[in-house]
Amino acid sequence: MNVILQYYRSLGTARTLNLRIWRLNSTSADVATTTKGDEEEEFRVLDILKSRQRTKKKVTRRNDVQPDRADRMSIDQKWGNVWPGPKTFHPSSVPLPLRQGYVPKGHVPPGKKANAELMKIPNFLHLTPPVVKAQCEALKQFCTEWPSLLNSEEAIENHYPVETITSDYCHAGPTIRNPLARIATLRVKLSTLNLNKHAQDKFIRLVGERYDEETDLVTITADRCPLRQQNLDYVNYLLTACYHESWNVEDWEHDKTEEDMEYYDWDKNASKKSLVQWHLRATNMPNDLSDMDYVEYDISKIPNGEEYKNAVSSLMNNGESEETLKNYGAAVRKLLGLPEAKI
Amino acid sequence: MFLRYWKKLGRNYSQSVNFRTSENLPIHQNDKHIGLFYTLKQEKCKELFGSGGFPKSFMKQTKTFTETSIMIRQPALDIMNCIQLSDFDKPAIRYVLFGEKGSGKSLTMAHLLHFANEEGFLIIHVPWVSEWLRRVPRHKEMANSLTRDGFVDLPLDAAAWLLHFKTQNRVYLKSADLVTSKEYVWSKREKTEMGKPLLELVEHGINRVKYSCDVIDVLMSEIKILSNNKKCKTFVAIDGFNSFFYPLTRLNTPTKRKVTPEEVTLTTSFMELTKNNWTNAAIVLTVDQLAVPDDRQESYLPRYLLYKKGFEHIDPFVPMEIGRYTEKEFLSCASYYRDRLWLRGPPDVETELKFTSACNPYRFMEQCAPL
User: Fold this and answer.
1) Which A residues in the span 264-323 are in contact with B, Cβ-Cβ below 8 Å?
2) Which pLDDT tens digit goes with each residue over B36-45?
3) What is the pLDDT of residues B14-70, one digit of tens each?
4) Are residues A208 and A173 part of one domain?
5) What are the residue ranges spanned by the domains of chain B?
6) Alpha helices in B229-348 (DSSP H)
7) Are B10 and B48 in contact (CB under 8 A)?
């Protein structure tokens, strides 16, 4: 045993000797040799509890976190099965490189993982076109066939002139009711109602600004009742009431004078009287007409009288503008037999 | 000396080609003369427009230019053409001139008056209706009408107008055809017998100012009868006609009551005259924004200015818009002003003036004044 130790020791000195010779020649191995030399010179510590060895005993655990589900999805999967209904955004279920949120300078928007912004906004991932199509297909068995006679917009308008408009609201929340859903609107074309001249005039006055002259539509909206059905009933009631009221003729309506007219009725105005008078004078006919005769006078006998009538009516009803005045001038010139105006 | 004369002649010639026409009779003027100026003779001017008829600014201009030149414009020619082609056995046709302020309505009317005068019309010309109804000098002569209850007479204005009428128709009033159709008794001692010339009636109105309004009333009905009987043909020209229809005049009765236009005797006479219940006449009226107060000046179109009442009174009428200068008219006018030394400076001044005046004749004239 001793021999062996001595041998080792001599061998060790020989090695150091050898290294010392090398040290003279080289500089690169210098640091390594010194540290080694230092270690060898360090005091050894008696480690009774062998704690150092215990720390070294690190258990290398197996990493069992699986890769993201979004990365493992096959490209031809059925998306409807992945995301069957409305729900909050989940990053691992959506294989899209989404980014959303505040962008600090020089950065990119935050990614989809742990992104509150993406979770806050409503998404429609459950309503992709193939899913909608599939659902429609599934619903088809419960639907009836569309009437073949209602093949055009005009036909629909003709058979169903009254149009009711309501809105449904669908949202996730503590309650599925939305107060706006109670509002009901009814639309009908005035020309589809059975009204005479007086009744139509009265109807327009009764509905007031609910009548749109350009589109000929009467729009009645009700939101005063808490339920939709009540509002619908009320809207229908209003239409019915206005309709029947407009057919009533009150006593005081007979007192309406020419100044109260809402439009210029040429036949009842002084313009017709002056035209007839002019015509009678121009043709040297006796003038013994009463006021009623003037109103009932047939102007088709007067050449170009009809055109003149239209020109005056448009001047009075559509307001005076350069164009209506020009028409009026042209009509008068024709009536009086004057040459046309040169421009 | 000769050279200078020659130069002057040459200049006149070249300029006359540009903007002047020697066709001084409106009858012979046609579309070729549009935009050109023709000169009225001094005597004619005095006869027709001696006591009104031209706008004030134009009067001043004629004095500056030492001549009375009127531009021949499309609307005037159009109306002349219409008058010539229209059937005078049919009811009188009413022409209404309208247009923006300063577009030349009154001058178009003056042109037409000259035409009527040359054509042998008896002229009934009211230079400016607002002069009667809206201008109130310190001592406006007003009197309650003796013949009609609740009506107001404007004797001095009426007499002045009769004088105007007399000077304008000096030639025609001498004709033996124009005689009264019945006897008029003015007072115990004064009367106009049947068959007396109209001139006598007119002079009675001028001399006895008290009766001037009644004389006008009678005169109008007499002229209507004479026209109907083809003794004369009549040309009625009323400037600022819409003044008759503004709800109030600026006149007050001695009891401080506001007078409406219908209560003035002159209004009724001229209303009667502008109806189309007579023949052998042409009636030219202008509607002007300046004839009514500011609150009724939003539009220059006749229906607006005449109100419904006035529109119905003269319906059917021929509307005739007097517009702004066209390109040709503007250039012609500019060269005329250059000739009269009213406009001076480099030639590109005109393009600028065209924009700043927007081709409005009056504004163009005003803007040239300091140049």
Assistant:
1) 269-271, 274-275, 277-278, 281-282, 308, 312, 315-316, 320-322
2) 999 999 999 9
3) 544 578 888 889 989 988 899 999 999 999 999 899 888 899 999 999 999 999 999
4) yes
5) 1-72+326-371, 89-110+120-322
6) 265-273, 302-314, 327-339
7) no
